[in-house]
Hints:
Blueprint: H1 14-20, H2 33-45, H3 48-55, H4 59-73, E1 78-81, E2 84-87, H5 89-112, E3 120-126, H6 130-144, E4 149-155, H7 157-166, E5 171-176, E6 186-190, E7 192-196, E8 208-212, H8 218-229, E9 234-239, H9 243-251, E10 257-260, E11 269-270, E12 282-288, H10 298-309
Parallel strand pairs: 3-4, 3-5, 8-9
Antiparallel strand pairs: 1-2, 5-12, 6-12, 7-10, 7-11
Helix pairs in contact: 1-4, 2-3, 2-4, 2-5, 2-7, 3-4, 6-10
Amino acid sequence: xxxxxxxxxxxxxxxxxxxxxxxxxxxxxxxxxxxxxxxxxxxxxxxxxxxxxxxxxxxxxxxxxxxxxxxxxxxxxxxxxxxxxxxxxxxxxxxxxxxxxxxxxxxxxxxxxxxxxxxxxxxxxxxxxxxxxxxxxxxxxxxxxxxxxxxxxxxxxxxxxxxxxxxxxxxxxxxxxxxxxxxxxxxxxxxxxxxxxxxxxxxxxxxxxxxxxxxxxxxxxxxxxxxxxxxxxxxxxxxxxxxxxxxxxxxxxxxxxxxxxxxxxxxxxxxxxxxxxxxxxxxxxxxxxxxxxxxxxxxxxxxxxxxxxx
Length: 310
């Protein structure tokens, strides 16, 4: 049963008013892509508020988009709960089609827009690798792309995975679990290491100081789990979303920063074996958008992998 819609009193926005007006017959057969994009973002981010931040909208405007979309489709797509958002059966089907529609929309815009002869390949890499890999990605992947233009976005791995599955990125390199790497073009294992300032020394029996991201990225979670399994005490002494800030904190001698070996750079050094428990290898992979032209752009994929594994 369709749930009742209530209008906000007072200062309702134009977007909210538009969501409440009756639908014309022509609108019942056409879905604006901005509504689909909002819906996909809510599903990927798990929050109306986060989707609003992503698009620079107010939360009422995002809710308005969803009401309008559900009115056009004629069914509820999302159920709100204390744990976040849950898709209805119809919502699951619409999400699958929406991703495909948005992907095609973006391809049309990039291929026949203002620069029709310069299609865009949108690549994503973790923030950790911006300093060590970005220049080569732009150079090598740019050369391999031929007439295509290469754009790069840096984010944490979970954000990159959401973006490629939603069709906002074409090709991403990410760290993740086996589940995260389902459908990846290529997967490999990389070393995870403890890095510190060159003059930092952990005293015997001391609490292990950690430099971490506030949202606990995969290397952070792995490091904490390893220390807990070894019954070794630790404390988070510095947090920052910004990767350069975390590198700077570790370089200043505040504590250990767990990162992949392939992302290590001076002045940070890798801790000697035996001082801390060994960290397990971490799964890495290259994931492509669902309908990405992997054959036609095979040289780009090969160049991307070569940069990341050498």
